[in-house]
Amino acid sequence: MRQTYTNYGCAADPSWLTFDEENRILYCFDDDITNNGSISSYTTGQDGRLTQINRLDTPKGPVSGILYGDVESRAVLVANYHSQSIATYGTTADGILKRYQTFTFTMSAPGTDPGRQALPHPHQAILDPTTRFIVIPDLGADVVRFFSFENGVNSLSEHEPLVVAPGSGPRHVAFWSPDGDESTVFMYVLAELASEVTAYRVDYLEDGGLSFERVFDISSVEGGTVRQGNMAAEIIVSPDNKFLTVSNRNDKSVTTANGQSDSLVTFALQADGSLQFIQIAAAGGSTPRHFSFNKAGDLVAVGLQGNSLVVILERDVATGAIGEVLAQVSAGTSPACVLWDE
Fold first, then answer.
1. Distance between CA 37 and CA 306 in Å, rounded?
2. Which residue in 53, 148, 155 sits closest to 94, CA to CA?
3. Which residues of 155-177 are buried (b: 16+ CB within 10 A; e: fewer)?
4. All residues at 6 or more sequence positions from 184 whose CB lies less than 8 Å from its CB, including other chains
5. Which of 64, 219, 228, 269 has a CA that sits 20 to 30 A from residue 5's CA?
6. Tens digit of each residue's pLDDT (9 = 90 or more) over 215-245
């Protein structure tokens, strides 16, 4: 593996990437906590070259973003951790951005963990399987927020949030439909502060809302040790829809030839929404904030912030087991997000 191109236009602290594969537009979010954040759009060349199209200031602290809408009307929603807000931006097939809405959240009092939960902290933006709802886990407020856009991408409607365990700190979520349709849907909430995965059955109501039934809980460091300072980070369903993998930072649960490594933990998805532990594997180093599977599911790219590396791990598609490091490359300082372009 080798580095082919570098672009510094998403400075000063890139935090997340969202790729519009159809139009080959890459959106980069800058989590600059000293000033405003920003969202930038880029064309992507076959050689990896990025050409900046547009850049707009955002509220402080964008850490995640998602494309939503359809071909006729598309927008980007950004979750802003440090300004307790989400913001939406219209975009075109050419990557031209314009501002829409901003929602700012409040709390009447600090949460269970006042050091991390003094204020709301939206940490992810993701679409549900129907693509009708945008889902926002809020680590500071211990809720998962929901928005719909039936009145247009420039006019979001807020729904009743899901309240999770106090002090758990929901960071990211993943959805799973056993049959790949909307007849049965589960949502898995990864709690950073509690180092837990909680499964909820999702029901879509006739009035356009949602309801949730909690069905299962398991440690994000199952098979290892939840150490002081462990922080669960990412949660992803495998491309074949059979496995769920989460990453843990600062757990040092796996011994390798190069010392202690943080972990990637894999579970088999069960029809009732429960998870069967499969493996705790080395993430390849320290602080795996983000990882992603290639389309075939036989490779895992991991951004190791503690080592300033991106590593590629082998993966057994049949068993879900993650194996050895196949390649690695220096990624500057503290890689926060890794995507495949295939």
1. 23
2. 53
3. ebeeeebbebbeebbbbbbbbbb
4. 177, 178, 201
5. 64
6. 999 999 998 778 888 999 999 999 999 999 9
Rounded to a whole number of angstroms, the distance between the first and last alpha carbons of the chain is 15
How many C-beta neighbours within 10 Å does residue 198 have? 20
- CA–CA gap between residue 183 and residue 202 (Å, rounded): 10
Residue 4 has pLDDT above 90, yes or no: no
Question: Which token pair is 328?
Answer: 């690695």
The Cα–Cα gap between 225 and 206 comes to 43
SS3 81: helix
Decide which of 177 and 34 is more confident: 177
Partners of residue 87 on adjacent β-strands = 78, 102
Nearest to 189 by CA among 246, 266, 230, 141: 246
Structure tokens at 316: 């057994």
Closest to 248 measured CA to CA, from 235, 234, 232, 237: 232
Dihedrals phi, psi of 205, to nearest 5 degrees: -90, 155
The CA distance from 312 to 297, in Å, is 12
Find the angle CA(15)-CA(29)-CA(133) to the nearest 5 degrees: 100
Q: Rounded to whole angstroms, how far apart are CA atoms 136 and 37?
A: 18
Q: Count Cα atoms within 13 angstroms, Cβ side, for 228.
A: 0
Q: What is the CA radius of gyration of the chain?
A: 19
- Look up tokens 């890139």; give the residue: 14
Closest CA to 276 of 284, 285, 287, 267: 267
The CA distance from 24 to 171, in Å, is 28
CB 201 within 8 A of CB 212: yes
Q: Please give the distance of CA 127 from its chain centroid, rounded to a whole number.
A: 11
User: Other CB atoms closer than 10 Å to residue 226's CB: what's the count?
Assistant: 17
Q: What's the predicted TM-score (pTM) here? A: 0.97
